[in-house]
Amino acid sequence: MIKVRQPSELGHLVQQSIKLDCHFAFRAYAGTASLHWGRLRVLNRIELEADAAFRLDHESAVEIVTLVLDGMVVALVDGLGDSLLNPGDCHVVSAGDGVALATWKTGGAPASLLQLWLLPEEEGGTPEIGLRREGDRFGHQHALLASGFPTDDPEEVDQGRSGDPLPLKARARVLRLALPAGGQAVIPTYADRCVYVLVAAGHVEILGHDAGAGCGIAITGCETVVAHALEPSTLVVCDSD
Predict the structure, then answer these.
(1) The 3-state secondary structure of 200-231, one letter per residue
(2) pTM score > 0.90 for this model?
(3) Among the four given CATH numbers 3.80.30.20, 3.30.230.80, 2.60.120.10, 3.10.310.10, the one describing domain 2-240
């Protein structure tokens, strides 16, 4: 099964100096909105103007994965400090028993970022954060950003600096694929898994379906997913149970 969701089908929220494109139900975007795809509960593209701040209050039992697309963002998590995020950096908040306040804010220039919220296998636990800088051991075309599978990071050395994936408490993987025009990427999965692909930039063909920038592609029942880039493209992929 594969379904392409066009940008016009998404939720679009405007909050003062913040714009959100929501693939699943979020805040005022509800009604006929999908609630989740596998363990992927939220996928938002967030556009922040200069000196803007996106805040979350009292979140628990969720893994919040943030990937910066453009600009610089400071992530501040109550009780866990702050992190300066540059383009390509990946930041994870494991909310556990609860985080009172989490904020992503810009300085004197605008920024854009993606947030994926994943439902953990088990609720509870001490809140934690993780940071992974741009660069990866798989090469530029295939970056495993975060994973809930220990075998994806057997050494667990120099976490967040060597390019190893950040740990998740969900049986899920979050990947970034950067493809040149004419290039392709193979996404291995299983028929009982739920794959969601966001075309962050460019234009691709996946399993016979065209998808341009801003599209979301929900896939299940496939052993292998192949993406063909019709122009230089960037994809963000979540594979979960």
Answers:
(1) EEEEEEECCEEEECCCEEEEECCCEEEEEEEE
(2) yes
(3) 2.60.120.10
Spatial distance between the Cα atoms of 174 and 13, rounded to a whole number of angstroms: 24
- Hey, how many other C-beta atoms are within 10 angstroms of the C-beta on 222? 17
What would the two tokens of residue 149 be? Answer: 């599978």
pLDDT one-digit tens code per residue, 184-193: 999 989 999 9
With CA atoms as reference, report the closest residue to 200 among 230, 233, 174: 233
Given a contact cutoff of 8 angstroms between Cβ atoms, the answer to whether 43 and 67 are in contact is no
pLDDT digits 0-9 by tens, 27-53: 999 866 789 999 999 999 999 999 999
